[in-house]
Design brief:
The structure is a single chain. The chain is mostly helical. It has a 3-stranded parallel sheet with strand order 1-2-3. β2, α5 and β3 form a beta-alpha-beta unit. The relative contact order is 0.13.
Length: about 150
């Protein structure tokens, strides 16, 4: 599944979809699969072999990172750090994998236990980025049904 997720992102970039629809925002499961890890190679392929990679899109793949969102479900702090450094703290949403058994025992635990990100970044990834993704104003949202913090 993570490989297929990366292939889907590449198809959208190199197929020109994200260029043709610049306001389109897409969210991918599994932390975007192996996309973050392979982005350097994807970019090099774009530069070195435009005949294969830039057939329908002449712009560097990194141009589209603002349109790409992923969930946070990578199960590993090193992978999570790479995801933040590649996709950006503003484009990662809490992932649970519900109802499938591969999710975290406590959704958000990887985010909450990360020692390399600030509390404000944790809030973004736990809920604020989701509100932004769906264009929901935080102050108009019913906070009784959506607590600001998650306690375990």
């Amino acid at each position: 599944m993570p490989s297929e997720t990366c292939i889907a992102i590449c198809c959208l970039i190199f197929g020109g979809v994200l260029e043709q629809f610049p306001k389109l925002k897409l969210c991918f499961a599994h932390g975007g699969g192996c996309f973050s890890y392979l982005l350097g190679r994807i970019e090099q392929g774009f530069k070195a072999r435009p005949d294969l990679c830039a057939a329908k899109n002449i712009f560097n793949p990194r141009k589209y990172l603002k349109q790409i969102y992923t969930d946070s479900l990578v199960h590993d702090h090193l992978s999570f750090d790479l995801l933040i450094n590649t996709i950006g703290e503003d484009n990662i949403l809490l992932g649970s994998d519900y109802p499938y058994p591969l999710g975290e025992d406590w959704p958000g635990n990887l985010i909450k236990t990360s020692s390399k990100i600030s509390e404000s970044t944790k809030e973004k990834i736990l809920y604020k980025n989701c509100l932004k993704f769906y264009n929901i104003n935080e102050f108009n949202f019913n906070k009784k049904n959506f607590p600001k913090t998650i306690n375990y």
